[in-house]
TrEMBL record:
Signal peptide: none
Enzyme class: ligase
Cited Gene3D superfamilies: 2.170.220.10, HUPs, Isoleucyl-tRNA Synthetase, Domain 1
Catalytic reaction list: tRNA(Met) + L-methionine + ATP = L-methionyl-tRNA(Met) + AMP + diphosphate
Name of the protein in its database record: methionine--tRNA ligase
Residue ranges of every copy of the Methionyl/Leucyl tRNA synthetase domain listed in the record: 68-307, 362-468
One Pfam family cited in the UniProt record for this chain: Anticodon_3
The family this protein is said to belong to: Belongs to the class-I aminoacyl-tRNA synthetase family.
Chain ranges of the Methionyl-tRNA synthetase anticodon-binding domain: 493-635
Superkingdom in the source lineage: Eukaryota
GO biological process: methionyl-tRNA aminoacylation
Record keywords: Aminoacyl-tRNA synthetase, ATP-binding, Ligase, Nucleotide-binding, Protein biosynthesis
Length: 648
């Protein structure tokens, strides 16, 4: 290895840095290992991707209607927990909304399977790294099925296709002159797989202290490491990263996170190490197999390789259909073609395959990994000549007692336990509705039960059950009049003014769609629930059960009752379209209960405008015998544990 150091072999001890910072420490820094002129396409694609950022709304699909959305690729050191599930269910809600809105969605998730942290976890579990990653990746795939996650791709960074892309990508960056060799010394957090700045370190209690050596997230010591590695010249891309952050809309949402990262970037983007000598569990560095590719450089590329893997298919684990792995030669051709295609977003062929849509429209991530996505990743892509993502949405943490819930912290909430006790809709609904997406949120079982029961069991479940049973008893299992006639009848009784449920439904459609576009799930769901709340109040006031029993003007009273119920059911139908991205199971059950084809809620069949337009329920259309669509929740998980603990 020493022989490959060339003029860049001077060792520079730097104790302060998360990005490796040879430049910062040595004015007479060694020259990069290999320097070539940047490919023209890299400059062009960066410039045009910046332009397209300002021209479009940040979560809009590209001009061909593609929408690529990703979750982070999860570390497979331990079984998934509710914190990681949170990112995935938020991305899933967005993917489902976008499909409903007519986009061709590529929803990518997967597992980050290399690196020291994983190798250590495997050894601890008494398994080989491969056995370990296979087992945990299987747990992720199974959990996503239980949580009703509709991912289109499931990438594993140990796949041959991914490896080909990492190798081909690193070669491009290298050829661009952005890789050099150097030595580094600093505090390393294996849990974050990241060197830490001294100023970021805290003591074991989480307090800043002179000489402290613990990671602020994991509260564990970060021993000093000294390694000779390859480095990526991230610092060369400072101005491009700044341009992406200050563009309108910015690369990063929400705005307060954009400001945080912009402040860090203004202090100077520093180069970072992209290889590890001490971690054999990884992809070999293409021009020096004694080192492996740094796990973050490796994993970020999973967003790209995922799009060339087989469709996740019904089994959700990425192996649904058997297509050949992408070879190294093909990966090289594909990357070259993607770079020359610029930001058109789709079309074209290379390496015997159709080119995937690119760039990514939204990376959904937690706040702890923002720097990797909004600084390293755009710089890497620019270096390789590929368009940069349109948006990185950084959400907050789920906490328990104020601490980030996490595998390394051992304070996790088990999603399987929650799912066993309460089902996917309840879990999905609670986290999307009760945490403002972007901020931290604490889990509390009592609140969980109340929120879910209020909205799903009472507002939705009771409304549909009660109304359809009234119709069944007073006419039979079909709608006595259409939604349009029913609304006209109520308007006539209201001096010609449309009924409040009709106008609320119209308004909620607009508010909810705009909120989904902004990934403000809580507001999107509140808007939908405004319809069901009003529907319940309206039925309560109308008292159709009394109208059906009226002796005087019985015909007119029945018509009023029928009209009111049909209007309430049509409004509920529209609410279910808006709720479907969050509670797909419940929305389908309600649709089926209304006698409608629930497959339209998966999107791509009927335009969203049409689905949410008043007039879906038709006169004479039949519906099945009503049965409950959502069972009330009783406290089961934590309370059961607490009683067990108390008994022990
Ligand atoms: N492997 C990297 C990501 C590589 S992406 C190319 C990683 N994995 S992780 O499993 O540690 O975390 C994945 C995601 O889960 C991150 O977005 C992280 O913020 C999120 N969460 C992990 N714990 C969390 C909470 N307690 N709350 C909310 N999300 C959190 O980082």
């Amino acid at each position: 290895m020493a022989s490959s150091l060339g003029r860049g072999s001077a060792v520079c001890s730097v104790t302060s840095a998360h990005f490796h910072m040879r430049r910062a420490c040595s004015p007479s820094s060694p020259r990069p290992f290999l320097v070539r002129n940047p490919p023209r396409s890299s400059l062009r694609s960066f410039a045009s991707s910046s332009a397209s950022l300002s021209a479009s709304t940040s979560t809009s699909s590209d001009s061909t209607g593609n929408f690529v959305i990703t979750t982070p690729l999860y570390y497979v050191n331990a079984a998934p927990h509710m914190g990681s599930s949170y990112t995935t269910l938020a991305a899933d809600a967005m993917a489902r909304y976008k499909r409903l809105a007519g986009a061709h969605v590529e929803f990518v998730t997967g597992c980050d399977e290399h690196g020291e942290k994983i190798a250590q976890a495997a050894a601890k579990a008494g398994r080989t790294p491969q056995e370990h990653v296979d087992a945990i990746a299987g747990e992720y795939a199974a959990l996503w099925r239980r949580l009703d996650i509709s991912n289109d791709r499931f990438v594993r960074t140990t796949s041959a296709t991914h490896r080909a892309f990492v190798t081909a990508f690193l070669e491009r960056v290298w050829d661009r002159g952005d890789v050099y060799q150097d030595a580094y010394e600093g505090h390393y957090c294996v849990d974050c797989e990241e060197y830490k700045d001294e100023k970021e370190l805290v003591n074991a209690a989480g307090e800043p202290e002179e000489g402290a050596d613990c990671c602020a997230i994991h509260r564990r010591p970060c021993p000093i490491r000294k390694e000779e590695n390859y480095f990526f010249k991230c610092s060369s891309y400072q101005s491009q990263v700044e341009a992406l952050l200050s563009a309108e809309p910015s690369l990063v949402s929400p705005a307060f996170r954009r400001n945080e990262i912009a402040t860090t970037v203004a202090e100077g983007v520093r180069d970072f190490s992209i290889s590890r000598a001490a971690s054999p569990w990884g992809i070999p560095v293409p021009r020096d197999e004694s080192q492996t590719v740094y796990v973050w450089f490796d994993a970020l590329l999973g967003y790209l390789s995922a799009l060339y893997l087989p469709h996740a298919g019904a089994d959700g684990d990425g192996n649904g259909d058997a297509t050949r792995d992408v070879t190294l030669e093909e990966a090289r051709e594909i990357l070259e073609a993607m770079s020359t295609r610029g930001v058109e977003g789709s079309g074209g062929e290379a390496g015997g395959r159709e080119l995937a849509p690119w760039p990514v429209n939204v990376h959904v991530i937690g706040k702890d990994i923002l720097r990797f996505h909004s600084v390293y990743w755009p710089a890497m892509l620019t270096s390789a000549g590929l368009p940069t993502p349109s948006r990185v949405f950084s959400h907050g943490f789920l906490t328990k007692d104020g601490l980030k819930m996490g595998k390394s912290m051992g304070n996790t909430l088990d999603p399987i336990e929650l799912l066993d006790a309460y089902g996917a809709d309840a879990v999905r609904f609670y986290f999307l509705k009760s945490i403002s997406f972007g901020n931290d949120g604490d889990f509390n079982e009592e609140r969980f039960i109340n929120v879910v029961n209020d909205s799903l069991a009472n507002d939705v479940g009771n409304l549909v059950n009660r109304c359809l049973n009234l119709l069944r008893k007073n006419g039979g299992l079909s709608f006595p009049l259409s939604a349009s006639e029913a609304a006209d009848n109520l308007a006539k009784a209201n001096g010609g003014e449309p009924h409040a449920l009709v106008t609320t439904a119209e308004q909620s459609v607009r508010v909810s769609a705009a909120a989904y576009e902004e990934m403000d799930f809580s507001r999107a769901l509140d808007a939908a629930l405004a319809i069901t709340q009003l529907g319940n109040r309206f039925i309560q006031e109308l008292e159709p059960w009394a109208l059906y029993k009226a002796d005087e003007d019985a015909e007119e009273a029945t018509l009023r009752a029928h009209s009111g119920i049909v209007v309430a059911m049509e409004a509920l139908r529209i609410a279910m379209v808006l709720l479907a991205p969050a509670v797909p199971g419940l929305a389908s059950r309600v649709y089926a209960q209304l006698g409608l084809d629930a497959s339209v809620l998966r999107g791509g069949v009927v335009p969203l405008d049409e689905l949410t337009a008043w007039g879906g329920l038709q006169e004479g259309a039949s519906f099945p015998k009503p049965k409950p669509v959502f069972a009330r929740l009783e406290e089961m998980v934590l309370s059961a544990k607490e009683s067990a603990n108390a008994a022990a």
